[in-house]
Every structure is written in C-alpha cells, then in structure tokens.
Amino acid sequence: MNIGSVRIDGIATLAPMAGYGDIAFRRLCRDYGAALTVTEMVSVKGLLYGNEKTDLLLRLAPNETPSCVQLFGYEPEDFYKALALACLAPFDIIDINMGCPVPKVTRNGEGSALLSDMGRAADIVRACRAAGKNRPVTVKIRLGRTNGEIVAPDFARKMQEAGAAAITFLLYTYPSPRDISGYRIPW
C-alpha cells in the first residue's frame, strides 16, 4: 500500500495512542510486525513554543521507517510554521488529528471540534501540504460529533479535495462507544 509517495510494506499499523505510544512501545510494535507506527498526538503550539515534553514525543526508534507524526491544533498558520521546524524533518507522513474528543482539546477548537468547521479543517490540510515538502498529509476523523450528526462522508471528500492522501475513520461519534450503553454503528 502507498500513502502518497510513501510505501507501506505490510497491513498492520499502530494507531496513535496518547499516553501509550512512546518510542519504546512503537519500537516493539515495529519489531513484531507493524508496518507503520504513529507518534502520540503532538500540539503544533507546543512545537512552536519549544515545549520540552513535546520533544520527547518526537523521538524515533531506528526501525521506524517509514515514520508518521500526528499533529493537532487550530490555526492553519501554526501548522505551516511547525512543519518548517527541523524536529519534524525526519517524518515521512504528517497526520492531522481531527478526531480527539477530549474537552481540553475540543474547547480550543482542535481535534473533533474541527468536524464542525470543514473550511478551517481544509485550510489546515492545505497549509500542511504547502509546508510539508511533498510529504503526504493524512487526517484522522470520527463519524461525527454526535450520533445524529454523521459528517464523515462529506468531511472526508472535503479533506481529499484539500490534498489529504488518506483518511482514517474512527467508526463512532463522540461520546465514544465506551461512554454510552446500547451504542450501534449507524449502518
């Protein structure tokens, strides 16, 4: 499989997992067959402010080739500036988190809050494509913000039109299935 110009040799991918996907875990996953691993989500603001904890999230194991960083933020200009930083140069793929439902992320308009602002989300993808030095840009989304608001098909088309090379779908809305009882995927 290819994501843009990046060849992925295998079928197993380690999704980004906040609090779990550190360099040691990603290295083990690669050792045991993951064809691609993704960093924990990294704040573009944290990158621009030079946050020391952010640098730890960007460490790569020697076997992480190809490599993928997951970024989150709100301002397209911040993504553009962050992608010019040397610390992101080693990454082959840029993934944008538009699926995180955590309130400390969504109250800033980031993560799954972007599902309600397709124009801004598309601008973020375009900014990443412009600054990404031909690296493919991917997007992670949910089906929608609520069960009654399934936006994924239109949202994915808009992201593809903006230049996204691939879209990863979380097959639920917010709240997630673990937060509600009797949840059913809507098809």
Overview of this protein structure:
The protein is globular. The protein has helices at residues 23-31, 44-49, 52-57, 76-82, 103-106, 118-131, 152-162, and strands spanning 2-3, 6-7, 13-14, 36-43, 67-72, 93-98, 137-142, 144-146, 149-150, 166-170. It is an alpha/beta fold. The two termini are 27 Å apart. It has a six-stranded parallel beta sheet with strand order 3-4-5-6-7-10. The chain has a two-stranded antiparallel sheet with strand order 1-2. The longest helix is centred in the middle third of the chain and has 14 residues, at 118-131.
Describe the secondary-structure layout.
Blueprint (H helix, E strand, L loop, with lengths): L1 E2 L2 E2 L5 E2 L8 H9 L4 E8 H6 L2 H6 L9 E6 L3 H7 L10 E6 L4 H4 L11 H14 L5 E6 L1 E3 L2 E2 L1 H11 L3 E5 L17
Parallel strand pairs: 3-4, 4-5, 5-6, 6-7, 7-10
Antiparallel strand pairs: 1-2, 8-9
Helix pairs in contact: 4-6, 6-7
In a few lines, what is going on in this structure?
This protein is α/β, with parallel strands linked by helices and about 190 residues long. The protein has helices at about 25-30, 45-50, 50-55, 75-80, 105, 120-130, 150-160; strands at about 1-5, 5, 15, 35-45, 65-70, 95-100, 135-140, 145, 150, 165-170.
Structural class: alpha/beta
Beta-strand content estimate: 15-25%
Rg over C-alpha atoms, rounded to the nearest angstrom = 16 Å
The portion of residues assigned to helices is: 25-40%
Shape: globular
Low-pLDDT stretches are none
How is the main sheet built?
Answer: 6 strands, parallel
Figure out the total of helices: 7
- The first-to-last residue Cα distance is 27 Å
Mean pLDDT: 90
Side by side, the strands of the main sheet go 3-4-5-6-7-10
Number of extended strands: 10
Helix-strand pattern: EEEHEHHEHEHHEEEHE
